[in-house]
Specification:
The chain is mostly helical and about 70 residues long. The radius of gyration is 14 Å and the shape is elongated. Helix 1 (about 10-20) packs across helix 2 (about 25-35). It has helices at about 10-20, 25-35, 45-65. The chain contains 3 helices and no strands. It has one domain (about 10-65).
Length: about 70
């Protein structure tokens, strides 16, 4: 299983932690639920994932020219 490390500001972290408690999930499960297209979408997380995908694609492109 791949490991993903995210840096989030304290406000976003607190919101994710609260949502996990409300949904009776671990913080990891809540993040995976949101990333997997759960019922409530986080625009911040979606934007972060899109940015990470773009960076990964750019690394692949840059690596294929080396």
């Amino acid at each position: 299983m791949a490991r993903l490390m995210l840096e989030v500001d304290e406000r976003v972290y607190a919101m994710l932690k609260e949502a996990a408690q409300v949904n009776q999930l671990t913080l990891e499960q809540e993040c995976l639920r949101r990333l997997g297209g759960g019922e409530r979408h986080s625009r911040y997380v979606q934007a972060l994932v899109a940015e990470m995908r773009a960076e990964d694609e750019q690394r692949r492109v840059d690596g294929s020219h080396g």
